[in-house]
Amino acid sequence: MSSEAQTPEARYILAIDQGTTSSRAMIFDHSGDVVSAGQREHRQILPRAGWVEHDPMEIWGNVREVIGLALAKADLTRHDICAVGITNQRETAIVWDKNTGKPVYNAIVWQDTRTQSIIDRLAEDGGLDRFIEATGLPLSTYFSATKIAWILENVEGARERAENGDLLFGTPDTWVLWNLTGGRRGGVHATDVTNASRTLLLDLHTLQWRDDILEAFDIPRTMLPEVRSSAEIYGHASSSSLLRETPIAGILGDQQAATFGQAAFSAGEAKNTYGTGNFLIVNTGTEPVRSTHGLLTTIAYKLGDAETHYALEGSIAVTGSLVQWLRDNLGIIGSAPEVESLALSVDDNGGAYFVPAFSGLFAPHWRPDARGALVGLTRFVNKGHIARAALESIAYQTREVLDAATADTEATLTELKVDGGATENSTLLQFQADILGIPVVRPNIGETTALGAAYAAGLATGFWSDLDELRSKWQEGRRWEPTMAPEERDRLNRNWNKAVKRTLDWVDDDVR
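C-alpha cells predicted for Glycerol kinase:
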C-alpha cells in the first residue's frame, strides 16, 4: 500500500457512501467512531416496469453537498482529513462523455431487468454459466456488462462515440472518483477489484478485463476504467473541491466495504447486510471458491500489493426496498420505522407469506422469470399480517443464502454478524435468529459500509497500521438469541419454500 505524509492536524478519515437510495459522507476518528455525517436522497426513476434509473448528475451534486455538510457539522476543513474512502452501489452502470463530463443516459441501476433479452441472446452459446469460470458470475441482468451493452445499442450515437474513444464507463465509485479528481480536466478513471468483479467482464484470477468477454458484449475496451487495489492512493481531490489535495485512497463496493467494516478479514468469517437488498458475504481466503449452490464468487478485497482475498456472496434483490414499497406503493405505513409497530399489532403472519420477487429471484435461485407473490391469504389477514410477512421475507431469504453458503463451504456458522439500516428493527432480528437457529449479532458501530471504506483509505495512508488494529476496534453492540422451537422453525420454512415455488415461471415472452 502507498502512504503519504499528512499534516499533524489530519486526524480524521472521510468516507463517501454512494448508495442505492442516497449519498452520504461520514467522518470517522482514529477509534472508528462517527464524528459527523451528511446525507441526501436521490430520485428513483422508474420509466416502466422492470426499469430502475438514477440521474448521475444529481448523484454527483449530492455527493458534493454531503461532503460540505459533514465537514460543516464537525467544524472541520480539508486540513483535518487524512484521506477519503469511497463505497458504492456496485453493479449500477454509468456511461458518460469524457470531453463534456455529461452522461449519455441515466445510470441503469443494479435492480433493473430491461436487459433480459441480451442475456437470452448470449446464453444461446454456452448457457447462463458461459463466463462463470473466469468471472465467478452467471449471466444475469444484475451485473453491469449488459447495462453498458444496452446503452450502446439503444442510445443514439453512443456506439459511434464509444468506438471513437469518447465514452467512459464506470460504476458509481468510478463516477465519483473521476469527478472528485478533476472530471474532464484530468479526472482519474479507475475502479477497484471488488467493483470490477461485479461487471461480468473481469477475470478473477488475472484481475484484468477479458477481451473475449468484451467482444461477446461488444463493448470497446477504451470505455473501461483501470483496475486498481482496494487500498492505495488513486489521486487527489481537485482544486474545485472542498477536499482539494486530499488523497482518495480507498475504494470498496458496498457489500465488501461492510464486510471490511465488520473486520471479517479471514477465511470463514461472514456478515449479512440489510439494506435495499440483503447481501451475505463469506470470506473464503486467497483462492476463489466456485459455488455449486447458487452463490456468486467475488473478490472480498485486495490491499495494495498484498494477495487478493475472495468471497462467496448471496445476493438478495428486495428486502429493505420492500418496506419502501409498502410505504410508497401501498401506503399502509407512513415511514419505514412504522413497519415494526404495524407488524407487532398481530401475533404472527396469519398464514401469509410475501415473496418480493420484483426483479426476479437472485441467489440462490437465479430465476428472472419469477415475480412477487403474496400467498396464503384469507379474510383474516390484515395489513398487520402483511407487514409481518414482509419483515419475515427478509429473514427467510437470508436463511436460503446462508444454507447455500454452508453447503458450499462445509462450514457451519455459529452466529451471524449483521449490519445495515434494517438492523434497527429488533422484531426482524429476533425472527432472523429464530428462523436460523443461531444468534444474530449487531456491532456497536452500525455504519459498517462507510467504516469499511474509511478503513481501506486509512490503511493506505498509514492512519491505521494493520488489520489487527482494525480487528481490535470491533465490539458487539447487541445479540439476539433464537427462542423458536425447531418444529415451528421447520414448519414456517416449509411454507416459505412453497410460497417461493408459486412465484416461478410467471414471465412469458409477452409478459415482462
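The chain has two domains: 12-244, 262-511.
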